[in-house]
Design goal:
Low-confidence stretches: none
Largest sheet: 3 strands, antiparallel
Number of helices: 4
Distance between the termini: 49 Å
C-alpha cells in the first residue's frame, strides 16, 4: 500500500499540450485514438482538468512500431 502511494505521488502528470508535443499528435488524433482504445486515458485532476501519467505515455510510445530502417540480413 505504501509503495503504491509513493508511486502515485512520484508520478508526473502531463497536460494535453505536453502530450501533443511529446507524441507529435494533434488533439483530435489523441481523442480519436482514446475512443478506439488505442491511447491511454487521462486521469481527472479536478472537475475540469485532466492529465496523463507520464509513464502511460512513455509506455505507449515504446509500444509503437519503429520507423527506423531495418538492417538487411
Amino acid at each position: 500500500m505504501a509503495e503504491t502511494m509513493r508511486r502515485l505521488v512520484a508520478e508526473r502528470y502531463l497536460r494535453r499540450k505536453s502530450v501533443e508535443e511529446i507524441t507529435s499528435l494533434s488533439r483530435t488524433t489523441i481523442y480519436d485514438l482514446m475512443n478506439k482504445g488505442d491511447f491511454p486515458r487521462p486521469v481527472k485532476l479536478t472537475g475540469r482538468a485532466v492529465a496523463w501519467p507520464e509513464s502511460a505515455i512513455q509506455e505507449w510510445l515504446s509500444s509503437r512500431p519503429s520507423t527506423a530502417p531495418q538492417a538487411a540480413a
